[in-house]
Amino acid sequence: MIPSNAIGILGGSFNPVHIGHVALAKEILARCPFERLFIIPNVSPPHKPPYEIESKHRLEMVKLAFEGVKKVELSTYELESSEPSYTFHTLKHFKNQLGLNVPLYFILGADAFYGLPEWYEFPKVLELASYIVVKRAGYENHQLEDGLNELREERLIKKQTAEPPFSRSFQTPFKTTVELLETALPEVSSTEIRLRLQLKERVTGLVPTKVDDYLSLNGLYGSQPKPNN
Protein backbone atom coordinates (compact mmCIF):
# COMPACT_ATOMS: atom_id res chain seq x y z
CA MET A 1 0.00 0.00 0.00
CA ILE A 2 1.29 3.45 -0.91
CA PRO A 3 1.80 5.54 2.26
CA SER A 4 -0.24 8.73 2.56
CA ASN A 5 2.93 10.85 2.68
CA ALA A 6 4.38 9.32 -0.50
CA ILE A 7 5.62 11.53 -3.33
CA GLY A 8 5.40 10.68 -7.01
CA ILE A 9 8.09 11.75 -9.47
CA LEU A 10 7.48 11.91 -13.22
CA GLY A 11 10.45 13.03 -15.24
CA GLY A 12 11.06 13.29 -18.94
CA SER A 13 12.17 15.37 -21.87
CA PHE A 14 8.63 16.67 -22.56
CA ASN A 15 9.93 17.51 -26.03
CA PRO A 16 7.19 18.62 -26.37
CA VAL A 17 4.70 17.81 -23.63
CA HIS A 18 1.53 16.22 -25.01
CA ILE A 19 -1.91 14.96 -23.96
CA GLY A 20 -0.49 11.55 -23.06
CA HIS A 21 1.77 13.08 -20.39
CA VAL A 22 -1.15 14.94 -18.84
CA ALA A 23 -3.41 11.87 -19.01
CA LEU A 24 -0.73 9.77 -17.30
CA ALA A 25 -0.30 12.28 -14.47
CA LYS A 26 -4.06 12.47 -13.90
CA GLU A 27 -4.45 8.69 -13.96
CA ILE A 28 -1.56 8.22 -11.54
CA LEU A 29 -3.08 10.75 -9.13
CA ALA A 30 -6.53 9.15 -9.45
CA ARG A 31 -5.22 5.67 -8.70
CA CYS A 32 -2.31 6.35 -6.33
CA PRO A 33 -2.79 8.38 -3.10
CA PHE A 34 0.27 10.60 -3.54
CA GLU A 35 0.59 13.71 -1.44
CA ARG A 36 2.21 15.42 -4.42
CA LEU A 37 3.36 14.55 -7.92
CA PHE A 38 6.47 16.33 -9.16
CA ILE A 39 6.87 16.87 -12.90
CA ILE A 40 10.57 17.20 -13.76
CA PRO A 41 11.70 18.30 -17.24
CA ASN A 42 15.28 17.20 -17.83
CA VAL A 43 18.22 18.63 -19.69
CA SER A 44 19.65 16.71 -22.62
CA PRO A 45 20.52 13.23 -21.34
CA PRO A 46 24.26 12.47 -21.40
CA HIS A 47 23.79 9.69 -23.98
CA LYS A 48 21.60 11.65 -26.43
CA PRO A 49 22.05 14.67 -28.74
CA PRO A 50 20.88 18.12 -27.53
CA TYR A 51 17.19 18.96 -27.79
CA GLU A 52 16.01 20.99 -30.77
CA ILE A 53 14.62 23.85 -28.69
CA GLU A 54 15.74 25.78 -25.62
CA SER A 55 14.86 24.45 -22.19
CA LYS A 56 12.89 27.61 -21.41
CA HIS A 57 10.35 26.67 -24.08
CA ARG A 58 9.93 23.10 -22.85
CA LEU A 59 9.53 24.44 -19.31
CA GLU A 60 6.91 26.97 -20.32
CA MET A 61 4.90 24.37 -22.23
CA VAL A 62 4.96 22.01 -19.23
CA LYS A 63 3.65 24.86 -17.07
CA LEU A 64 0.81 25.44 -19.53
CA ALA A 65 0.00 21.74 -19.87
CA PHE A 66 -0.33 21.03 -16.14
CA GLU A 67 -1.88 24.34 -15.17
CA GLY A 68 -4.71 23.68 -12.71
CA VAL A 69 -4.00 19.96 -12.20
CA LYS A 70 -4.30 19.44 -8.45
CA LYS A 71 -1.36 17.96 -6.53
CA VAL A 72 0.99 18.49 -9.47
CA GLU A 73 4.12 20.56 -8.83
CA LEU A 74 6.75 21.51 -11.36
CA SER A 75 10.40 21.03 -10.39
CA THR A 76 13.21 22.81 -12.25
CA TYR A 77 15.90 20.91 -10.35
CA GLU A 78 17.33 19.10 -13.37
CA LEU A 79 17.15 22.18 -15.61
CA GLU A 80 19.03 24.25 -13.03
CA SER A 81 21.50 21.57 -11.94
CA SER A 82 25.11 21.70 -13.07
CA GLU A 83 25.14 17.88 -13.07
CA PRO A 84 23.93 15.60 -15.89
CA SER A 85 20.28 14.47 -15.72
CA TYR A 86 20.86 11.22 -13.88
CA THR A 87 17.90 9.84 -11.93
CA PHE A 88 20.29 8.95 -9.10
CA HIS A 89 21.14 12.63 -8.53
CA THR A 90 17.50 13.68 -8.76
CA LEU A 91 16.34 11.10 -6.22
CA LYS A 92 19.13 12.06 -3.83
CA HIS A 93 18.08 15.70 -4.16
CA PHE A 94 14.48 14.92 -3.24
CA LYS A 95 15.56 12.71 -0.36
CA ASN A 96 17.63 15.59 1.01
CA GLN A 97 14.83 18.12 0.44
CA LEU A 98 11.88 16.09 1.71
CA GLY A 99 13.53 13.87 4.32
CA LEU A 100 14.79 10.32 4.26
CA ASN A 101 11.51 8.97 5.68
CA VAL A 102 9.36 10.29 2.82
CA PRO A 103 8.72 7.43 0.34
CA LEU A 104 9.50 8.32 -3.28
CA TYR A 105 7.87 6.61 -6.26
CA PHE A 106 9.59 7.13 -9.59
CA ILE A 107 7.21 6.69 -12.55
CA LEU A 108 8.52 5.41 -15.87
CA GLY A 109 7.34 3.63 -18.98
CA ALA A 110 8.01 -0.03 -19.62
CA ASP A 111 10.45 0.90 -22.40
CA ALA A 112 12.58 2.97 -20.00
CA PHE A 113 12.28 0.29 -17.33
CA TYR A 114 13.81 -2.21 -19.73
CA GLY A 115 17.09 -0.24 -19.59
CA LEU A 116 17.10 0.29 -15.82
CA PRO A 117 20.06 -2.06 -15.14
CA GLU A 118 22.18 0.23 -17.36
CA TRP A 119 21.31 3.41 -15.45
CA TYR A 120 23.94 5.43 -13.67
CA GLU A 121 24.56 4.06 -10.13
CA PHE A 122 22.45 0.96 -10.60
CA PRO A 123 21.43 -0.82 -8.34
CA LYS A 124 21.72 2.09 -5.87
CA VAL A 125 18.82 3.81 -7.64
CA LEU A 126 16.62 0.99 -6.34
CA GLU A 127 17.50 1.96 -2.80
CA LEU A 128 16.40 5.60 -3.15
CA ALA A 129 12.89 5.04 -4.50
CA SER A 130 10.20 2.58 -5.45
CA TYR A 131 9.25 2.35 -9.12
CA ILE A 132 5.90 2.40 -10.87
CA VAL A 133 6.29 0.84 -14.31
CA VAL A 134 3.52 1.99 -16.64
CA LYS A 135 2.64 -0.67 -19.20
CA ARG A 136 1.02 0.98 -22.17
CA ALA A 137 -1.12 -0.71 -24.80
CA GLY A 138 1.02 -2.23 -27.54
CA TYR A 139 4.11 -2.83 -25.41
CA GLU A 140 5.23 -6.41 -25.85
CA ASN A 141 5.04 -8.52 -22.71
CA HIS A 142 8.30 -10.31 -23.50
CA GLN A 143 10.19 -6.99 -23.43
CA LEU A 144 8.85 -6.28 -19.97
CA GLU A 145 9.72 -9.78 -18.83
CA ASP A 146 13.27 -9.30 -20.11
CA GLY A 147 13.56 -6.20 -17.95
CA LEU A 148 12.21 -8.03 -14.92
CA ASN A 149 14.63 -10.90 -15.49
CA GLU A 150 17.53 -8.45 -15.48
CA LEU A 151 16.35 -7.07 -12.15
CA ARG A 152 15.84 -10.52 -10.64
CA GLU A 153 19.61 -10.81 -10.63
CA GLU A 154 19.44 -8.06 -8.00
CA ARG A 155 17.23 -10.35 -5.87
CA LEU A 156 13.93 -8.90 -6.99
CA ILE A 157 11.20 -10.97 -5.34
CA LYS A 158 7.65 -11.21 -6.68
CA LYS A 159 4.95 -10.70 -4.06
CA GLN A 160 2.18 -13.30 -3.87
CA THR A 161 -0.48 -10.66 -4.39
CA ALA A 162 -0.36 -7.14 -5.76
CA GLU A 163 -2.50 -4.49 -4.10
CA PRO A 164 -4.70 -2.31 -6.31
CA PRO A 165 -4.12 -0.45 -8.54
CA PHE A 166 -1.11 -2.57 -9.50
CA SER A 167 -1.20 -5.77 -11.54
CA ARG A 168 2.11 -7.12 -10.22
CA SER A 169 4.38 -6.14 -7.37
CA PHE A 170 8.01 -6.96 -6.54
CA GLN A 171 10.16 -6.37 -3.47
CA THR A 172 13.76 -5.18 -3.85
CA PRO A 173 16.55 -5.96 -1.36
CA PHE A 174 16.34 -2.32 -0.20
CA LYS A 175 12.73 -2.42 1.13
CA THR A 176 11.53 -0.54 -1.94
CA THR A 177 9.19 -2.01 -4.53
CA VAL A 178 8.68 -2.26 -8.28
CA GLU A 179 5.00 -1.98 -9.17
CA LEU A 180 3.41 -2.66 -12.57
CA LEU A 181 0.51 -0.45 -13.59
CA GLU A 182 -1.67 -1.28 -16.59
CA THR A 183 -3.02 1.79 -18.38
CA ALA A 184 -4.94 2.77 -21.49
CA LEU A 185 -3.36 6.07 -22.47
CA PRO A 186 -3.73 8.07 -25.69
CA GLU A 187 -1.58 6.78 -28.56
CA VAL A 188 0.65 9.82 -29.04
CA SER A 189 4.37 10.50 -28.86
CA SER A 190 6.62 13.55 -28.82
CA THR A 191 8.51 12.12 -31.79
CA GLU A 192 5.30 12.00 -33.84
CA ILE A 193 4.44 15.58 -32.86
CA ARG A 194 7.88 16.91 -33.81
CA LEU A 195 7.68 15.16 -37.18
CA ARG A 196 4.22 16.55 -37.89
CA LEU A 197 5.39 20.07 -37.05
CA GLN A 198 8.46 19.70 -39.25
CA LEU A 199 6.13 18.67 -42.09
CA LYS A 200 4.06 21.81 -41.43
CA GLU A 201 1.11 19.74 -40.21
CA ARG A 202 -1.19 20.70 -37.37
CA VAL A 203 -1.01 18.92 -34.01
CA THR A 204 -4.33 20.10 -32.62
CA GLY A 205 -5.72 17.44 -30.29
CA LEU A 206 -2.31 15.85 -29.69
CA VAL A 207 -1.15 18.56 -27.29
CA PRO A 208 -3.10 20.69 -24.81
CA THR A 209 -4.68 23.73 -26.44
CA LYS A 210 -2.42 26.24 -24.71
CA VAL A 211 0.63 24.23 -25.75
CA ASP A 212 -0.62 24.16 -29.34
CA ASP A 213 -0.92 27.95 -29.25
CA TYR A 214 2.55 28.31 -27.73
CA LEU A 215 4.14 26.07 -30.39
CA SER A 216 2.55 28.11 -33.16
CA LEU A 217 3.30 31.49 -31.61
CA ASN A 218 6.99 30.68 -31.19
CA GLY A 219 7.47 28.69 -34.38
CA LEU A 220 8.88 25.71 -32.48
CA TYR A 221 10.01 22.56 -34.35
CA GLY A 222 9.21 24.32 -37.61
CA SER A 223 5.54 24.88 -36.74
CA GLN A 224 3.49 27.39 -38.71
CA PRO A 225 1.40 30.22 -37.27
CA LYS A 226 -2.28 29.35 -36.91
CA PRO A 227 -4.55 30.94 -39.51
CA ASN A 228 -6.67 33.81 -38.26
CA ASN A 229 -10.34 32.97 -37.86
Tell me the β content. Answer: 15-25%
Oligomeric state as shown: single chain
Are there runs of 5+ residues with pLDDT below 50, and where? none
Q: Give Rg in angstroms.
A: 18 Å
DSSP helix count? 9
- The sequence of SSEs as H and E is EHEHEHHEHHEHEEEHH
Give the end-to-end Cα distance, rounded to a whole number of Å. 51 Å
Task: Tell me how many strands there are.
Answer: 8
Structural class: alpha/beta
In this structure, how is the largest beta sheet organized? 8 strands, mixed
Fraction in helix: 25-40%
Overall pLDDT confidence:
89
Rough shape? Answer: globular
Question: What strand line-up does the widest sheet have?
Answer: 3-2-1-4-5-8-7-6
Report on the structure:
This protein is 35% helix and 17% strand. It has an eight-stranded mixed sheet. A hairpin with a 5-residue loop joins β7 and β8. It is of the alpha/beta class. It is built from nine helices and eight strands. The chain has helices at 19-31, 55-65, 77-80, 87-98, 110-114, 124-128, 141-152, 190-198, 209-218, and strands at residues 7-12, 36-41, 72-74, 104-109, 130-135, 157-158, 168-171, 177-182. The longest helix has 13 residues, at 19-31.
